[in-house]
Design brief:
GO terms for molecular function: ATP binding; cytokine binding; growth factor binding; metal ion binding; transmembrane receptor protein tyrosine kinase activity. It is built from ten helices and 43 strands. By secondary structure, it is α+β, with helices and mostly antiparallel strands. A hairpin with a 4-residue loop joins strand 19 and strand 20.
Length: about 775
């Protein structure tokens, strides 16, 4: 077994940070990860489809006759983990120390960075620097970083930086220089009022330079150079649309960006005000730009003081604080005024920005303030009472919404039209002959765990007679189980004992109901559930029939069911010694027919006992030695709150994709609704464990499609005859669906036509009376 760390990065070969390749040579880069990987170029919008060859966890780039466009940083991305590794490739050009420039006109916004793409073809360049074309000193305050890989990056461009620039360096002791670049600077900030519309237009064109020595005839088909334009229309601007906008133009060789800022001017507004309290008033305003607050006194009541000629503007006793001032969006400012001119009856707070004004008026008459402890105490008691009520309500709601454990199988007492009367399982009798001594059980690993309990593998000593050892499955509740869950497990025990044994259901072997928690002992199925078995076998599935040298196990081994009586049934010879180790064998169509046939037989048995399953699905079918399929109720060992197959509908979680229309929309469960679920189970079997209705979430559209008669297409590996059975199971009218007895006959016909070499390993049974514990059971060794 090969283990990989989940966080390891992909490995690039050659394992170096930089790679230099001579022009016209061959470039080979190889990347290997723990999953599928692919190559990316940071300066290429398109993937390297032509040069890349992907083979599972390995991706290789091979480029013949490397040229300057192949220079740059190559990044290998592992798709599952998103981990990356990179390598920078230089393409060495003996004639040019810098890559031949395609674009020499550089446009940058004010206060934004600018990039001059003087890219080195040789990493051995030294003393890389930026100079003006005319030799003058660089503009005052210009800051830049130089890199042979990415060129020159100028920070915080200003209008004074406009001009012609050239990159200089030293290579092998000789001075070298790049092409000349013209830097143009445009204002990067755009202001617009909220509700208005602005239009931003961008134009980009490119041309391919012709290298000296290439004849014009080679390019006679080029008639014009491409030119593109793009418009951005911002209609009825909102403050939330303020921000940095970037226009990007790119082709296979280069990518350029043009960035600008949009600031939306919003009318100022006064969002809160208080006072007068303790001789002070407070006013808070917000807007863009951040408003300015001024205060005015006047001696006229309820008028705007700022419009009165003899009004007094207060500036001395004002405390103004900017609360927020984001680069984009509204800023907020708070202003407090200590009232010193109490002889004026009116005070006005004015907030202004960009010519817009809002105001609020205060009447200068001191408010009556309650005791300083009254309000905090009132708020505290009220908050505590509200929180306590909320907690009690949440706890009560959680308790009411908590799913209750109950057995899915329902036994019908009588049918009155469309109404079914079910037997109360708590009223069913329990035969204490099923009791098995607790001290003769040795528990092993947990097979499944749910919200209410778990199923544990165990070894039972003396199950049939004193010297026998048998592997069994034991159902038990968690220690925190309530009385209702304990009663539900006891009801499940009574239903299983009532049904009796059948080869295609998980049979009851015994129980422990006294002297401790209730334990239900059932057959152990070594291959787990059918759903995961099909998925495990998907890669080894063979559509053709198996040859004569294959011995089929348990294909219709027992017809009907076995009545419960104080006996023990076993194969004539040692079963464990004869059974084939089938889990290592491939799966074929005959196996799928066998599973379908066996489940139909088991459901026919349940129907004969007036029992409805209500949750028939591949996850609730178990497989044991001989690929014998057994129907079970896995509710105890499954947490439906975390199982995506169970969808919230109303106040319950239901397996909606397996349910019939009448069960979904009318909450009606019948034999016919089990037939519908059996059709979905057939689709699971012949799709090798795929989820039904693939790609369709359970939402209003799904319910509408089911009502309108939508049905799934035939699964990939289904014979036509089996798909016809599925369609008949999905008839919109319940009573037109075939009964399980009819389904058994239809599948038997297919088996008789297709299977020529079937060996029944259990053609006969005999009984052996159990006398050691007084317990009665019916079954087979090894199950």
């Amino acid at each position: 077994m090969q283990l990989h760390s989940g966080s390891s990065r992909p490995v690039i070969s050659p394992d170096v940070p930089e790679l230099t390749v001579k022009q016209s040579d061959t470039l080979v880069l190889r990347c290997q990860g723990n999953g599928p990987v692919r190559w990316q170029r940071e300066d290429r919008p398109r993937s390297l489809v032509r040069e890349e060859h992907r083979d599972g966890e390995v991706s290789t780039i091979r480029v013949e006759h490397v040229q300057q466009p192949h220079r740059g940083r190559y990044t290998c991305l592992e798709e599952r983990s998103a981990e990356t590794s990179s390598i920078h490739v230089y393409v060495k050009d003996p004639k040019n120390a810098f890559r031949v420039a395609i674009i020499t006109d550089i446009m940058a916004g004010s206060d934004a960075p600018a990039y001059i793409p003087c890219l080195a073809t040789d990493p051995n360049l030294t003393d890389l620097r930026l100079e003006r074309c005319d030799g003058r000193p660089l503009p005052a305050g210009m800051r830049y970083t130089a890199s042979t890989a990415t060129g020159m990056a100028i920070a915080d461009v200003r209008l004074a930086y406009e001009g012609c620039y050239v990159c200089m360096a030293t290579l092998n002791g000789k001075p070298v220089h790049s092409a000349q670049y013209k830097l143009s600077v445009r204002p990067g900030k755009r202001d617009a009022r909220g509700g208005k519309t602005i239009l931003c237009s961008f134009y980009a064109s490119w041309s391919k330079r012709t290298t000296l020595g290439i004849t014009l005839a080679q390019f006679f088909h080029v008639r014009s150079f491409p030119s593109y334009s793009s418009d951005l229309r911002l209609v009825r601007l909102k403050v939330s649309e303020s921000g940095v906008y970037t226009f990007t133009a790119s082709n296979a060789d280069v990518t350029i960006h043009q960035t600008f800022e949009v600031h939306v001017i919003s009318k100022p507004e006064i969002v809160s005000y208080d006072g007068p309290v303790d001789g002070q008033v407070r006013c808070v305003a917000e807007g863009y730009p951040t408003p300015q607050i001024t205060w005015f006194y006047c001696d006229q009541p309820y008028v705007r003081c700022s419009n009165v000629l003899n009004a007094t503007q207060e500036e001395e006793d004002v405390i103004t604080v900017t609360m927020t001032n984001p680069p984009f969006g509204k800023g907020a400012v708070e202003s407090r005024l200590n009232i010193t001119k109490s002889n004026y009856p009116t005070l006005e707070c004015v907030a202004s920005a960009e010519g817009e004004i809002v105001y609020t008026l205060f009447s200068i008459s001191e408010r009556t303030v309650p005791h300083e402890l009254f309000t905090p105490l009132l708020i505290g008691f009220s908050s505590a009472a509200a929180i306590l009520c909320l907690i009690l309500f949440i706890l009560a709601y959680k308790y009411m919404q908590k799913p209750k454990y109950q057995i899915q199988w329902k036994v019908i007492e009588g049918i009155h039209g469309n109404n079914y009367v079910y037997i109360d399982p708590t009223q069913l009798p329990y035969d204490h002959q099923w009791e098995f001594p607790r001290d003769k059980l040795r528990f092993g690993k947990t097979l499944g765990s749910g919200a209410f309990g778990k199923v544990v593998e165990a070894t039972a000593y003396g199950m049939s007679k004193a010297d026998t050892v048998m592997t069994v499955a034991v159902k038990m509740l968690k220690p925190s189980a309530h009385a209702t869950e304990k009663e539900a497990l006891m009801s499940e025990l009574k239903v299983l004992s009532y049904l009796g044994n059948h080869i295609n259901i998980v049979n009851l072997l015994g129980a422990c109901t006294v002297g401790g928690p209730t334990l239900v002992i059932t057959e152990y199925c070594c291959f787990g559930d059918l759903l995961n078995f099909l998925r495990r076998k998907r890669d080894s599935f063979c559509c053709s029939r198996l040859g004569e040298d294959y011995i089929r196990l348990a294909l219709g081994v027992l017809n009907g069911y076995m009545t419960m009586r104080p006996s023990y049934t076993r194969a004539k010879s040692s079963y464990c010694g004869e059974v084939l180790q089938e889990d290592g064998l491939a799966l074929d169509t005959e196996d799928l027919l066998s599973f379908s046939y066996q489940v139909a037989k088991g459901m026919d048995f349940l129907a004969s006992k007036n029992c409805i399953h209500r949750d028939l699905a591949a996850r609730n079918i178990l497989l044991t030695q001989g690929r014998v399929a057994k129907i079970c109720d896995f509710g105890l060992a499954r947490d439906i709150t975390t199982d995506s197959n169970y969808v919230v509908k109303g106040n319950a979680r239901l397996p909606v994709k397996w349910m019939s229309p009448e069960s979904i929309f009318e909450c009606v469960y019948t034999f016919e609704s089990d037939v519908w679920s059996y059709g979905i189970l057939l689709w699971e079997i012949f799709s090798l464990g795929s989820s039904p209705y693939p790609g369709m979430p359970v939402d209003s559209k799904f319910y509408k499609m089911i009502k309108e008669g939508y049905r799934m297409d035939s699964p990939e590996f289904s014979p036509n005859e089996m798909y016809e059975i599925m369609q008949s199971c999905w008839d919109a009218k319940p009573f037109k669906r075939p009964c399980f007895g009819k389904i058994v006959e239809m599948i038997e016909q297919q088996i008789s036509d297709s299977t020529k070499h079937v060996c029944h390993l259990w053609p006969h049974t005999h009984t052996h009376t159990h006398t050691a514990t007084g317990m009665s059971t019916t079954g087979r060794d090894g199950l």
